[in-house]
């Protein structure tokens, strides 16, 4: 029996239409969660993060004004850095490490971990743990970026306050042995700070200065700071905008939506109603490579023999699910 057939069999069996593809993997919605009774814990602002995030965004705004003085090569390099760091998130910590939706060889995992450090969004282990708890307890107190607390909280606010205790409590019960067993994940976690200094700030600044004599000032503010902030905001939009605006062709009972703008800015991660309905699908979308650079990248890696075992949901399952729980909206791809 092929992997897809196994998935279909399990999907047929499941009562709410979602399945776990690997024994014990924890990225599937758990409807049994109950919020604790009584008053909510107070919101504790982490001023250090407020100040650092404000400085980062001010620095990036300054970077926008420096764009006209950057050389075309520096702009191209900024694009390359955007792409490498975005893939470190989408193909790396999201589709590979959080959802195990395909398998990657050691060289590819090393490349994705480097891209991940370039994206500086917490180490792979921490990101994947938060993301699994997000899928499992979506829009509850145990969801780190619970979108029912509003756009600002889901976008950036959750990084500026202490976590709700339920996030930590439920997160501690997750099955994470696959991450603990991955040497690349553990190595990146051990050397996270130096790897971020090197990949997120030093390399993006040094290359344009050393190779084509870009001013170090421009090289720091455009390919390093501005590029970092753009990747951050593109990722955060998946948590905020794609949990609020768009249609819900696969499951109208959940908040995540299909959002074209997010799909574009987050290189294929805006098909969020599909993704929360079928979190184990490596394409995160019904439409394969369409508007989905990350899926194209994973396909290319398979072609080169660097990845394999892409998990996919069959057209029949998707259609059945659409009819059963979708909002009746038309194709969104
Ligand atoms: C960033 C992350 O930006 C962005 C994530 C985006 C996600 C997007 C997902 C969408 C889908 C994919 C699409 C991608 C699209 C990409 C497009 C690209 C173009 N379970 O954390 P602490 C434990 S990061 C279990 O201090 P506080 C923890 O281990 C940006 N345990 O909590 C620790 O235990 P111990 C840069 C957990 O004090 C203890 O709890 N980074 C869990 O509440 C305390 O942990 C920052 O800005 C869990 N889930 O502080 C830093 N969580 O003591 C942000 C925690 O035993 N972080 N624990 O070691 C912080 O400063 C803090 O975490 C805090 C909370 C202030 C937010
Ligand atoms: Zn996900
Ligand atoms: Zn989500």
UniProtKB/TrEMBL annotation:
One of its GO terms (molecular function) is palmitoyl-CoA 9-desaturase activity. InterPro entries: Acyl-CoA_DS, FA_desaturase_dom, FADS-1_CS. Its cofactor is Fe(2+). Residues 1-25 are annotated as: Disordered. Its EC number is 1.14.19.1. It is found in: Endoplasmic reticulum membrane. Keywords: Endoplasmic reticulum, Fatty acid biosynthesis, Fatty acid metabolism, Iron, Lipid biosynthesis, Lipid metabolism, Membrane, Metal-binding, Oxidoreductase, Transmembrane, Transmembrane helix. The chain crosses the membrane at residues 46-67, 73-93, 191-211, 217-238. It is a multi-pass membrane protein. This is stearoyl-CoA 9-desaturase. It comes from Betta splendens. The lineage of its organism: Eukaryota, Metazoa, Chordata, Craniata, Vertebrata. The gene is scd.
């Amino acid at each position: 029996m092929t992997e897809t057939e196994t998935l279909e069999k399990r999907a047929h069996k499941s009562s709410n239409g979602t399945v776990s593809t690997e024994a014990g993997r924890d990225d599937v919605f758990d409807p049994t969660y109950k919020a604790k009774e009584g008053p909510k814990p107070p919101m504790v602002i982490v001023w250090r993060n407020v100040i650092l995030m404000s400085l980062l965004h001010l620095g990036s705004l300054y970077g926008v004004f420096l764009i006209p003085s950057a050389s075309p090569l520096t702009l191209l390099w900024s694009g390359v850095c955007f792409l490498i760091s975005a893939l470190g998130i989408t193909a790396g910590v999201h589709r590979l490490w959080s959802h195990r939706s395909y398998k990657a060889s050691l060289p590819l995992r090393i490349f994705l971990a480097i891209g991940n450090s370039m994206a500086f969004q917490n180490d792979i282990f921490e990101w994947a743990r938060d993301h699994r708890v997000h899928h499992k307890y979506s829009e509850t107190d145990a969801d780190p970026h619970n979108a029912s607390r509003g756009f600002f909280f889901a976008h950036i606010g959750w990084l500026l306050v202490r976590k709700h205790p339920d996030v930590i409590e439920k997160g501690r019960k997750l099955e994470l042995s696959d991450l603990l067993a991955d040497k690349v994940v553990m190595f990146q976690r051990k050397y996270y700070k130096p790897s971020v200094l090197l990949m997120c700030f030093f390399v993006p600044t040094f290359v344009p200065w050393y190779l084509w004599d870009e001013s170090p000032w421009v090289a720091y503010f455009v390919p390093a700071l501005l590029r970092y902030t753009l990747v951050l905001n593109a990722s955060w939009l998946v948590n905020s905008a794609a949990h609020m605006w768009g249609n819900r062709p696969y499951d109208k009972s959940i908040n995540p939506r299909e959002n074209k703008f997010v799909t574009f800015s987050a290189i294929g991660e805006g098909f969020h109603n599909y993704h929360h309905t079928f979190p184990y699908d490596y394409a995160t979308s019904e439409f394969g490579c369409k508007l989905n650079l990350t899926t194209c990248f994973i396909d290319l890696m398979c072609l080169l023999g660097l990845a394999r075992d892409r998990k996919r949901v069959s057209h029949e399952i998707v259609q059945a699910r659409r009819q059963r729980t979708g909002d009746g909206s038309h194709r969104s791809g």
